[in-house]
């Protein structure tokens, strides 16, 4: 880098920020995004990462998207029909066919070893840095040095007030942070999706491009909450438009679930593609499905708390009924990444789509 930098200087034509602006001004958002993504991979630079995530948000409004494919849901080969519960594959066997048969045929697909151990450790550290950067800025005020790890961009609509003293006790080193609020984490994640071929796989799944969103792209650190019960929910219940088409990629960054020391997730398999009633008798909130109803559903549908090693993942869609699985003797925090992808043509604008 030394020589190039000396020759061109950081503000010269070689400056990726400047070149990305030129491409965006010319309407080539895809090229601008690709250029910034590559630049972020060469150089862990908060300004580049911030511009990349902002560019991804801006680009959704600027790009043209097709109408939803009329052939939906897509056919699949039912390759997992003999499996009871959630099918499992190794990362090397992941492709659009497995995704379709897993999600549409069985309500979800477990993929072992999707993220390699070194990247898992790096991601866990990034999530931790995002959480503490938020906490420290809530307490101490906005801090440019922390912004690469936590910054609420003006491009991001709404969300909780981040910088009021009154909020300081709401933030600690656990909880959840929107991916877009942590630019360096967001850039690393979009690089990972690209490295495993996810954009292409999701394009095959939806028969159109997939996008992320501001509100449903979440970095998590769940504390043990022994003997507590989280709310059963279907994300389709919050997402508004019933015609949405989704794939959620949930990646464990900590060993968790049955037999482990950190909380996993509990999921209902083989869903029927329906949204269940919420807020009925015994439900804790108007958005949760009551335990009584879940018990009834469980008579005909498998309910599982899978064991995940760090780096394992599960894919499911907005019809999946699930909750955080608190146990009785957990002692460790559980880190995870939750990435909801939408078929671009059905992406809910309220969630603020983010170009992948
Ligand atoms: O991480 C969790 O415990 C909950 C995840 C979840 O609700 C989701 O991915 O939709
Ligand atoms: Fe959920």
Give a brief rundown of this model.
The chain has 356 residues and is α+β, with helices and mostly antiparallel strands. It is 32% helix and 17% strand.
Structure characterization notes:
This protein has 356 residues and is of the alpha+beta class. The chain has a single domain (69-355), classed as Jelly Rolls (Sandwich), CATH 2.60.120. Helices cover 32% and strands 17% of the residues. The chain has helices at residues 2-8, 16-25, 29-42, 46-62, 96-106, 117-140, 183-195, 198-206, 291-298; strands at 88-90, 109-112, 175-178, 210-213, 217-222, 233-234, 246-252, 264-268, 303-304, 313-316, 321-325, 334-343, 353-355. Strands 1, 2, 3, 4, 5, 7, 10, 12 and 13 form a 9-stranded mixed beta sheet that branches. It is globular. The site of 2-oxoglutaric acid has 10 residues, from strand 5, strand 7, strand 11 and strand 12. 2-oxoglutaric acid (AKG) binds at residues 220, 222, 235, 248, 250, 265, 322, 324, 336, 338.
Biggest sheet, in brief? Answer: 9 strands, mixed
What proportion strand? Answer: 15-25%
Bound compounds? 2-oxoglutaric acid, fe (ii) ion
- The radius of gyration over CA amounts to 21 Å
Mean pLDDT: 93
Unreliable stretches (pLDDT < 50, length at least 5) are 1-12
Order of helices and strands: HHHHEHEHEHHEEEEEHEEEEE
* Overall strand count: 13
Assembly form of the protein: single chain
CATH C-level category: Mainly Beta
Q: Any idea of the CATH topology?
A: Jelly Rolls
């Amino acid at each position: 880098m030394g020589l190039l930098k000396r020759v061109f200087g950081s503000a010269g034509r070689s400056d990726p920020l400047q070149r990305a602006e030129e491409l965006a001004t010319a309407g080539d958002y895809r090229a601008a995004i690709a250029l910034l993504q590559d630049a972020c991979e060469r150089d862990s630079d908060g300004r580049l990462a911030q511009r990349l995530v902002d560019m991804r948000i801006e680009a959704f409004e600027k790009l043209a998207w097709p109408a939803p494919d009329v052939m939906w849901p897509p056919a699949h080969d039912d390759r997992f029909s003999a499996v009871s519960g959630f099918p499992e594959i190794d990362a090397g066997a992941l492709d659009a066919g497995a995704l379709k048969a897993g999600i549409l045929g069985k309500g979800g697909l477990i993929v072992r070893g999707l993220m390699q151990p070194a990247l898992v450790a790096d991601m866990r550290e990034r999530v931790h840095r995002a959480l503490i950067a938020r906490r420290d800025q809530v307490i101490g005020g906005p801090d440019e040095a922390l912004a690469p790890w936590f910054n609420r961009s003006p491009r991001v609509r709404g969300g909780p007030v981040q910088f009021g003293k009154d909020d300081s006790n709401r933030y600690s080193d656990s909880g959840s942070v929107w991916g877009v609020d942590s630019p360096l984490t967001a850039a690393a994640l979009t690089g990972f999706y690209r490295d495993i071929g996810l954009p292409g796989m999701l394009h095959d799944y939806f028969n159109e491009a997939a996008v992320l969103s501001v509100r449903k792209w979440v970095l998590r650190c769940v504390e043990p909450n022994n003997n507590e019960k989280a709310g059963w929910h279907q994300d389709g219940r919050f997402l508004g438009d019933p015609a949405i088409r989704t794939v959620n990629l949930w990646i464990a960054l900590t060993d968790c679930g049955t037999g482990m020391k950190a909380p996993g997730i509990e999921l209902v398999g083989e869903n029927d593609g329906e949204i269940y009633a919420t807020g009925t008798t015994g439900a804790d909130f108007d958005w949760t499905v009551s335990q009584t109803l879940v018990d009834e559903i469980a008579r005909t549908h498998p309910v599982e708390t899978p064991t995940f090693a760090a780096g394992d993942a599960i894919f499911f869609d907005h019809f999946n009924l699930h909750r955080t699985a608190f146990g009785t003797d957990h002692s460790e925090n559980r880190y995870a990444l939750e990435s909801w992808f939408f078929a671009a043509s059905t992406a809910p604008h309220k969630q603020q789509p983010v170009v992948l």
